[in-house]
Structures are given as C-alpha cells and as structure tokens.
Amino acid sequence: MEILFTTLLILAIVASMWFAGYVVYRLYTDS
Question: What keywords appear on the UniProt entry (predicted)?
Fold first, then answer.
C-alpha cells in the first residue's frame, strides 16, 4: 500500500512540475 501511495505521489509531483514548465514555456514563447 505504501508503494502505491508513493508512486501516486511521485506521479502527482512530476505531473505538476511538467504542467508548470509547460505553462512557463508557453508564456515565454508567446512573448
């Protein structure tokens, strides 16, 4: 159970970082 929770937590962190990076990339390219 701990492995599943840790995996979901890591996926959530990676997804949030990717989304934040994508937004910054779009804002930077649009300027």
Answer: Membrane, Transmembrane, Transmembrane helix
